Amino acid sequence: MDTIRITDLEVFYQVGVTEEERAKAQRLLLSVEMTHDFTSAISRDNLAETVDYHAISQRLLRFGDGCHWQLIETLAADIAAMILDDFTPKSVSVEVKKFAIPQAAHVSVRLTRVPRS
Prior knowledge:
Elements: E1 2-15, H1 19-22, E2 26-36, H2 39-44, H3 53-62, E3 68-69, H4 72-87, E4 91-98, E5 107-113
Parallel strand pairs: 1-3
Antiparallel strand pairs: 1-2, 2-4, 4-5
């Protein structure tokens, strides 16, 4: 299976357990890895037959508009569901990095999802 990656896309979403934490958007880094069969896209040199990483990036930049999450786990699951539903890769892995602990470079969660049958 072939892979497309978007690495450390900088977004600003409202996420956090406390209301204070969710009061304003926080900087997060999103990494997305999608599997897809590129055979048709390559043979025809056709964007419509692959996963449009530019469109996904643009969607992710706006994904947090008007939304908030308590857990980055929930955010990662929501992102994965949106990508599977709207862009139809064979699978998607999402990593969300949050800068919540000053003594750590970041805290992150990573999950992988496949389309529901």
